[in-house]
Design brief:
The chain has helices at about 20-30, 45-50, 60-70, 80-90, 130-135; strands at about 5-10, 35-40, 75-80, 95-100, 115-120. By secondary structure, it is α/β, with parallel strands linked by helices. It has one domain (about 5-135): HUPs (Rossmann fold). It has a five-stranded parallel beta sheet, sandwiched between helices. Helix 1 (about 20-30) links the parallel strand 1 (about 5-10) and strand 2.
Length: about 140
């Protein structure tokens, strides 16, 4: 009997693009069909702190709705600060935490509460910032 693998990923996910969808699909591939993929998203206030006053483009209610509509994702939670993020990860106790490969050799908040940390190679040419710069 296979047990459900719990996967955690987090981010702003303000302007969704193909790279995000490939990340979510990768999570499902890594975890297998019997998995639970939980996505943590930064609150609107936290996005403003991290990205500037002009962000987010999409509010947290809409971002949460968009993500919940994606077939690879099982749950979406919102966090307001680093401590709340850490506590959410600790409470969920994921088998695997997946982050972008740009975090290799950097501190990954909350990773100490995951059994395994996996890096996802970002898809070249896709970024929310790049999309916004084109607009």
């Amino acid at each position: 009997m296979q047990t459900t693998k719990k996967i955690w990923i987090n981010g702003c996910f303000d302007v969704l693009h193909r790279g995000h969808i490939e990340l979510f699909e990768y999570c499902k591939e890594v975890a297998g069909p019997d998995s639970n993929i939980r996505v943590g998203i930064d609150s609107d206030e936290r996005v403003k702190q991290l990205k500037g006053q002009s962000r987010p483009i999409n509010n947290q209610r809409d971002r949460k709705y968009f993500l919940e509509s994606i077939k690879f994702i099982d749950e979406v939670v919102v966090f307001n600060d680093e401590l709340e993020l850490i506590n959410s990860i600790k409470k969920y106790s994921p088998d695997i935490m997946i982050v972008g490969s740009d975090y290799t050799n950097k501190r990954v908040i909350g990773s100490e509460h995951a059994k395994k940390l996996v890096f996802f190679d970002k898809i070249k040419g896709y970024s929310s910032t790049g999309i916004l710069e084109k607009i």
